[in-house]
Hints:
Structural class: alpha+beta
Oligomer: single chain
Largest sheet: 8 strands, mixed
Number of helices: 13
Low-confidence stretches: none
Shape: globular
CATH topology of the largest domain: FAD/NAD(P)-binding domain
Mean pLDDT: 95
Distance between the termini: 37 Å
Radius of gyration: 22 Å
Strand content: 15-25%
CATH class of the largest domain: Alpha Beta
Number of domains: 3
Bound molecules: flavin-adenine dinucleotide
Helix content: 25-40%
Amino acid sequence: MHPGGDVEFDVAVVGAGVVGCAIARHLARAGASVVVLDRAVDVGDGTSKANTAILHTGFDTEPGSLESQLVVRGRSLLADYAAAAGIAVEPTGALLVAWDDEQEARLPSLVDKAAANGCADVVLVGAEEVRAREPHLGPAARSGVSVPGEWVIDPWSVTLAFATEAVGIGTVLRLGTPVVGLDVGDEGLEVRTPDDVVRARWLVNAAGLGADRIDEMLGHRDFTVTPRRGQLIVFDKLARRLLTRILLPVPTARSKGVLVSPTTWGNVLLGPTAEDLEDRTDTATTAEGMARLLADGRRILPDLGAEEVTATYAGLRAATEPGGYQIHIHGDQRFVSVGGIRSTGLTSAMAVAEHVAGLLDGAVATWSGRPVATPPPVMPPLGERQVRPMRDPVRIAADPAYGTALCHCEQVSRGEVRDACHASVPATDLGGVRRRTRAMNGRCQGFYCGAEVVALVAAETGTRATTLTRVPR
Length: 473
Ligand SMILES: Cc1cc2nc3c(=O)[nH]c(=O)nc-3n(C[C@H](O)[C@H](O)[C@H](O)COP(=O)(O)OP(=O)(O)OC[C@H]3O[C@@H](n4cnc5c(N)ncnc54)[C@H](O)[C@@H]3O)c2cc1C
């Protein structure tokens, strides 16, 4: 797998979000030797950890656009991949609801747009039928549009599965490694980190919010990134009875708007907001944002106002100017830039990877290894409707650690947290443990189990407990 000479890798990918990991997986399967560099200490620790977890159909994308093509294709690829990898998906479908005359007047054009995007099953639904389908909707709900193909998925396991598969076939994952400079040489590129230089024949920029800065290192200004913050509220599982499907608003040009959605973990999500910021790290939630969301939530589902909030969080979309997916190849520099994957990247990631591979094929890039056809890794069953290890007598009989409760709210066993610490892409902090096992993600948010989780992770990883006690999401 070694390309020879001074060049260590066929491809260096900057960014271990869902897009970078999907690209690494795809190219590694094609026979490339790949290194992925990310400044974060875990995969999927940027925008990919904080979204609304919807497997989109692309019904409301701009027909004919690259985004439309890649979302439609990506949805189909990811639905199959998730089924094979045991990643939780719920085929809830969605109901888009109009709340005033103006929104109602736009519904037929949304159905036309959906048809142009290949979603022939998207149809108008009268006001009476809307209420029959979702009886808890607020009194101002009008008619709507049914979108049966919008599903919910466990987003964290997706990035982790791509990374696990890539590592399993030889990809080198360098976390905690910021890329600080790039130089183009005769044989490829030199990727500078604070500690060393990595040499690769090709570079793929999948740096999300930092993609324009990586581009600038090679002299390109094809797009600029503005972080668009989306704040969200997670409601307790008892709120799940209030809806059976995703409740969508009529989208605007700026965002898909505030929705209410079930999650594969049994909770209910409300959000996101859409606020343009300057700070690319500002994932704080604000009192104003929460108040706005709660007001929207009460309008959509009045009973939601009385439900318990489990958690709040915010993610930053990489909104670009110009908008739309910004995927460019600069063959003279052996450089592919993947920017502007703003609101749909979880869904489209596998198709983005396929598209990037196609660009590289077109540039006659060659790889030092042979293609491999491994099955996806089998991911831990984290969905509310999956059989969790603590409810699986066969697993418990084989290893009693799966029957020993650690996090009671989310029914997580000691065995699962132990496994997360020793996986091929291991958890190295509490955020990583949360995303791999759901420990501390429940009603008490780690109030009861936090100390025990910290002690177990410290013992398993050899990390001092005091360095683990910050509890990021
Ligand atoms: C509120 C919200 C809701 C969303 N809802 C959905 C949804 O329901 N469905 C859907 O399909 N999509 C959704 N999205 C979009 C989706 O989450 C993103 O498109 C996707 O996560 C982008 O992935 P990425 O890999 O491009 O970026 P990221 O996950 O941000 O990964 C980029 C990585 O690059 C690293 N990096 C940056 N600069 C450097 C550097 N110089 N050196 C080293 N590493 C660097 C970062 O640390 C980061 O880990 C939503 C997004 C938001 C914010």
